[in-house]
């Protein structure tokens, strides 16, 4: 059966305000986790952010949280292998997963990351949604597809967030959306609405805030 993927509609005033309020309060770094035993108590829901190295994940988290340098943009892609937890006031944990798919990362590092990711995704009952970031210039790559399959197997809903949309034309945007929608057809855990963002220009940031506030 064909799934009908669409863009997330603009939030209504109430949802927008909820999103604004959630992120008006300071978001703080809680801890970096390298093993399941280090996860904070599962006392609230959480959402996490995943994506290939350099997809613009740190920039997106910084834009969402109105902070310049909350999520440290790592200079050595693939090096930071921690799951970083951030707290919102009265809302979910924001969880920043290490970037994947960096070709030059040592095999041992990749394997360790995959093992931790698997345990995290299948073992965290409070994980409500995974935002999978996809670079609007590149669309869904094989390495993204592997992660999406892992999410399918873990039965965790994921929502695709296109990043850096300011870098492409309207025509390219239509093209990449087609590619992404096609790639998502075989992923039952995909949420049917996509979000198109630019951390640089602010596109989609309020929408994403409203989505996160709506899950809380
Ligand atoms: N034009 C444009 N550039 C962006 C945008 N978001 C991120 N970038 C740039 O893309 C590069 C990577 O962004 P980061 O936010 O560091 O990416 P990351 O996914 O956190 O990277 P890793 O730490 O390697 O996992 C940086 O040079 C950013 O300035 C965007 O919305 N528009």
From TrEMBL:
<dbReference type="Pfam" id="PF01926">
    <property type="entry name" value="MMR_HSR1"/>
</dbReference>
<dbReference type="InterPro" id="IPR030393">
    <property type="entry name" value="G_ENGB_dom"/>
</dbReference>
<keyword id="KW-0132">Cell division</keyword>
<dbReference type="InterPro" id="IPR006073">
    <property type="entry name" value="GTP-bd"/>
</dbReference>
<dbReference type="InterPro" id="IPR027417">
    <property type="entry name" value="P-loop_NTPase"/>
</dbReference>
<feature type="domain" description="EngB-type G">
    <location>
        <begin position="43"/>
        <end position="216"/>
    </location>
</feature>
<dbReference type="GO" id="GO:0005525">
    <property type="term" value="F:GTP binding"/>
</dbReference>
<keyword id="KW-0131">Cell cycle</keyword>
<protein>
    <recommendedName>
        <fullName>Probable GTP-binding protein EngB</fullName>
    </recommendedName>
</protein>
<keyword id="KW-0479">Metal-binding</keyword>
<keyword id="KW-0342">GTP-binding</keyword>
<dbReference type="GO" id="GO:0005829">
    <property type="term" value="C:cytosol"/>
</dbReference>
<keyword id="KW-0460">Magnesium</keyword>
<keyword id="KW-0547">Nucleotide-binding</keyword>
<dbReference type="GO" id="GO:0000917">
    <property type="term" value="P:division septum assembly"/>
</dbReference>
<dbReference type="GO" id="GO:0046872">
    <property type="term" value="F:metal ion binding"/>
</dbReference>
<comment type="similarity">
    <text>Belongs to the TRAFAC class TrmE-Era-EngA-EngB-Septin-like GTPase superfamily. EngB GTPase family.</text>
</comment>
<comment type="function">
    <text>Necessary for normal cell division and for the maintenance of normal septation.</text>
</comment>
<keyword id="KW-0717">Septation</keyword>
<dbReference type="InterPro" id="IPR019987">
    <property type="entry name" value="GTP-bd_ribosome_bio_YsxC"/>
</dbReference>
């Amino acid at each position: 059966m064909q799934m009908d993927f669409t863009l997330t509609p603009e939030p209504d005033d109430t949802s927008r305000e909820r999103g604004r309020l959630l992120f008006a309060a300071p978001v703080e770094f809680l801890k970096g986790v390298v093993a399941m035993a280090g996860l904070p108590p599962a006392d609230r829901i959480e959402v996490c952010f995943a994506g290939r190295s350099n997809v613009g994940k740190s920039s997106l988290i910084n834009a969402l949280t109105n902070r310049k340098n909350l999520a440290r943009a790592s200079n050595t892609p693939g090096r930071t292998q921690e799951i970083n937890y951030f707290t919102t006031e009265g809302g979910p944990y924001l969880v920043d997963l290490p970037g994947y798919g960096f070709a030059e990362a040592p095999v041992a590092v990749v394997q360790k990351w995959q093992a931790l990711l698997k345990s995290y995704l299948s073992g965290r009952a409070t994980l409500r949604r995974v935002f999978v970031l996809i670079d609007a210039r590149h669309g869904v790559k094989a390495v993204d597809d592997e992660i999406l399959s892992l999410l399918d197997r873990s039965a965790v809903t994921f929502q695709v967030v296109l990043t850096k949309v300011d870098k492409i034309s309207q025509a390219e945007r239509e093209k990449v959306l087609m590619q992404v929608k096609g790639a998502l057809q075989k992923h039952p855990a995909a949420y049917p609405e996509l979000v198109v963002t630019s951390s640089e220009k602010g596109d989609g940031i309020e929408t994403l805030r409203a989505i996160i506030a709506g899950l809380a």
